[in-house]
Amino acid sequence: MLARYVPILTWGRAYTREQFGRDAIAAVIVTIMLIPQSLAYALLAGLPPEVGLYASVLPLVAYAVFGSSTSLAVGPVAVVSLMTAAAVGRITAEGTADYISAAIVLALLSGGILTLMGVLRLGFVANFLSHPVISGFITASGIIIATSQLSGLFGIASHGHAMPELLTSLWDHLWEINPYTLAIGMSSLAGLVWIRRDLARRLVALGVPAATATTVARAGPVVVVLASIVASVVFGLGEKGVALVGDVPQGLPMFVVPNLSVDLVAALLGPAFIISIVGFVESISVAQTLAARKRERIDPDQELIGLGAANIAAAIGSGYPVTGGFARSVVNHDAGAVTPAAGAFTALGIAIATLALTPFLALLPKATLAATIVVAVLSLVDLAILKKALAYSRADFAAVATTLGVTLVFGVELGISLGVAASILIFLYRTSKPHVAVVGRMPGTEHFRNVLRHRVETVPKILSLRVDESLYFANARFLEDCIYEKVTAHPEIKHVVLMCPAVNAIDMSALESLEAINGRLRDMQIDFHLAEIKGPVMDRLKRSDFLQHLTGKVFLSQHAAIAELTQVSDGPRRV
Amino acid sequence: MLARYVPILTWGRAYTREQFGRDAIAAVIVTIMLIPQSLAYALLAGLPPEVGLYASVLPLVAYAVFGSSTSLAVGPVAVVSLMTAAAVGRITAEGTADYISAAIVLALLSGGILTLMGVLRLGFVANFLSHPVISGFITASGIIIATSQLSGLFGIASHGHAMPELLTSLWDHLWEINPYTLAIGMSSLAGLVWIRRDLARRLVALGVPAATATTVARAGPVVVVLASIVASVVFGLGEKGVALVGDVPQGLPMFVVPNLSVDLVAALLGPAFIISIVGFVESISVAQTLAARKRERIDPDQELIGLGAANIAAAIGSGYPVTGGFARSVVNHDAGAVTPAAGAFTALGIAIATLALTPFLALLPKATLAATIVVAVLSLVDLAILKKALAYSRADFAAVATTLGVTLVFGVELGISLGVAASILIFLYRTSKPHVAVVGRMPGTEHFRNVLRHRVETVPKILSLRVDESLYFANARFLEDCIYEKVTAHPEIKHVVLMCPAVNAIDMSALESLEAINGRLRDMQIDFHLAEIKGPVMDRLKRSDFLQHLTGKVFLSQHAAIAELTQVSDGPRRV
């Protein structure tokens, strides 16, 4: 029972020395990659840089205990950092103790929500974030984040978590550009872009194995960080107005009990829920992709518990909301991680770095961190999704465009909320007007097809309709209208046969509609029949008294219906 | 073009003397029935009684011009009156000029919304009120209304539009019961119940034709009203503390321009929308039932315009929101109305009554009107729906119970909103976990059925899955999990065939999931195939590049898939 919720009890017992070796190597590489990212994402979240390091220690240990993916690397990520900034920034000002405290509470709430969802097996809630919504949201977030980092690259002030405010504030401060900051920022950017685009290829050309080259290239940004620190010292950039990371407290924070006021919890509960779902969807997708390569399976509900534990640990360790990151998980996997222990070793690496490296990090220009973020998030921006969605269906395009547009203009929370609402409404709208075909018999066969698409035989006194959708409240009245329209236009109709091979369910509203159709057709002296009803749907219908009232019959096949009804005399009718 | 939106231009031209005769007779009977109801419902809405009469004049004329039902009788109805009281009562106190003015604005907004929905052909929005929600809502409204009228029957004060407040206030004032009011109230109630239950039967026993007896019984309450007025005069009830209707302005109101402030409109827009939808759903259901008896068809979008015009007319004529009433429409139909002109003649009747009868109505005890309402709304209360829903499905029961409970405890607006939200979420939840069956071949046939239900033949290296639901965002990841779970448990699987005869649509999220499944199965060296995809779904898939990436094939039938894949050698695999 306990082992079900704590995977480490299963894999931990069989942990081998060989596994340790592979996990440790992966941990070293991920640690090198994670240090600059942690600092940068904390700044993006409006937090002191060391909070990013804190969020990369305890959460990784917690995930190693409770998580089920052998490849996932958790920690601060770009989109969640932006969402944290948006949520906390609405409550209090950046740079205050309240701000940090609110970020901790946000992690705690997020952890609680994720854990609860995992225990209650509510992972399906994440399904409401449809692919178009997630794509539009991630792309918009990437654009917002990249734009917000321009201030760091230019050495100017900016504020806001949506495009209009960001662009206005950037424009207002544009004359304040610091040339030294700009120089170090642009150099860092160029270096990072070169590492990302060309380094692996160059290494391969030099004879380095492809896998190693890729891994080295992924850890490469640390070189840019080191070079920036050196430049900062050599040119005395701090005195020239270039913003440096500055003094970072050496050592790990004490375990804190967050300051939980009712007002704060109430204000953060909604954002925490959205952050949880977005973080989970991103994480589970990475975890499943990497698991498939090892023919392993990820249990989504256990992942909720793993991420929940990681976020609660983030709160305990003075961090902020975390989730599984795409790039670092791929690095972790490619570097050979075979158990969640790799994450725990990474945590150890970050802890050592926090203790030992902070004096050097104080000299790092913030512009370099901004460049790190810009390079990382530009890979999130995928405007081609708009074109792809448009080609596939207008409904999906509408969902992408709504989410993308609202997120850019009004921010992350409204963007994702309206995106979800739009995709649900679009789905309901589509199923509310299902495809309904009048069908006839293909000559010489027992097959019935759409009269508009095929040359088929029909009987004037029989209206055969096939409805290609489950019948439920949103389309129940549509079906009624559809039938009334046809029978009032054709007074010769004496029988209506509803062919239901594609009806997977009939809810109570649809049942009520079928009863209304039956009663109203009876008033018109028309019999109402059903054909090809699926087993589970028939079981359900038998639980009501509908079949007793049905004026016609239930036929096993459309062919049987037409064969029998064609022979029936429709002379004097019962009253 | 104009005739499309103004049905009177069509039927009005062919209007005959015979039609006039039948419409006029129906109008007389409906007028007699409508006078006490109009007064009573206005009081229920917290408005002076004459407002009910005003709402029964112009709206009927407007509906006669724009409506499409030949039987529908519009005017004040119980549920909409309660909703009006709830909406306006939140803004201002009963008995003030602002209250009346807000009710007029509510009618105007409701009329605007309905007309706009009709012109934009948005009638499908009403589909979101599922049958369980409407049933639960109407039943709860009936209970609330009946309870609220106890104060009128007892002659005590009460307030509130939900049960807790109503019951508390009734309890607080219980010691103030006026025995004369109680006596006249209970006598009226007894008389009305007797008329409803027994009068028609007695008349038939006396040799009156059944149809006439029913119609007389429907108009019977006017006798109780007359008797109460006589009792009021004879016993001088007014001096004994019995609340009378009191002075009603003689004559019709001037056309008023409602006082439209932005704040008022903002506060009333939400309630106006809910009132519009509820009124429309009730009205269209009555109209369709009665139309079917004449083998006529109701155009829902034209009905929106008809009801919209009626509500705008209500605002112009100092009335309040109206809709088609069930009982009076049935009376109208049974009394022989053949065109919407019957409504216009009823309006004339009410106008004459307003001019001529108001001195007599002043003496009518309000307790009699309360009794009228109680008798009318008790027919709305249908607690059996709970049992029926429970027997049919837990999901529908949850929707009924949510709507009923929340409406009773928290009032009409929250009740219907949460009911709609619940029924949408329940639907999404149900479709998010569709029925998925592993299928095998029925021996000696080409049919494939569920391995759990039938003795079928399977091939170990092939996993055949049939999914009984359209694939969309809410169930896309469920399908992924389902497949990964099965293939990781059975390493012998080399092929997965997804059988899609019940898949009516594949949205972009589901497409993304299929791509992920394809890619991840490829990583596991498993081929992914599809079978029995419907034409429209296939057309859609061809608009993406999914089929180019598919590791397996698309088979026309499951049988063809198994036949071919069984023969394939699965020796050395491509990388």
Describe the 3D structure.
The structure is a homodimer of 575-residue chains. Chain A is mainly alpha-helical and 575 residues long. Chain A has two domains: 2-404, no CATH class; 436-567, 2-Layer Sandwich (Transcription Regulator spoIIAA), CATH 3.30.750. The first copy, chain A, is built from 26 helices and eight strands. The first copy, chain A, has helices at residues 2-5, 8-11, 17-44, 49-54, 58-66, 78-89, 97-119, 131-154, 163-172, 179-205, 210-219, 221-234, 262-293, 300-316, 326-334, 341-356, 358-361, 366-378, 384-392, 394-410, 412-432, 473-489, 508-523, 535-542, 546-549, 558-567; strands spanning 74-75, 323-324, 436-441, 448-450, 462-467, 495-499, 527-531, 554-555. In chain A, the strands form two sheets. Chain A has a six-stranded mixed sheet with strand order 4-3-5-6-7-8. Chain A has a two-stranded antiparallel sheet with strand order 1-2. In chain A, strand 6, helix 23 (508-523) and strand 7 form a beta-alpha-beta unit. The model of chain A has no long low-confidence stretch (mean pLDDT 89). The interface between A and B is large, with 77 and 77 residues.
Contiguous uncertain segments of 5+ residues of chain A: none
Oligomer: homodimer
Instruction: Give the count of structural domains of chain A.
Output: 2
Helix content of chain A: 55-70%
Radius of gyration of chain A: 31 Å
Q: For the largest beta sheet of chain A, what order do the strands appear in spatially?
A: 4-3-5-6-7-8
- Largest sheet report of chain A: 6 strands, mixed
Q: What average pLDDT do the residues of chain A reach?
A: 89
Look at the helices and sheets of chain A and give the structural class.
Answer: mainly alpha
- Can you count the helices of chain A? 26
Most residues in contact: chain pair: A-B, 77 and 77 residues
Q: Which of globular, elongated, flat, extended, rod-shaped describes the shape of chain A?
A: elongated
How far apart are the termini of chain A? 65 Å
Give the percentage of residues in beta strands of chain A.
5-15%
Number of strands of chain A: 8
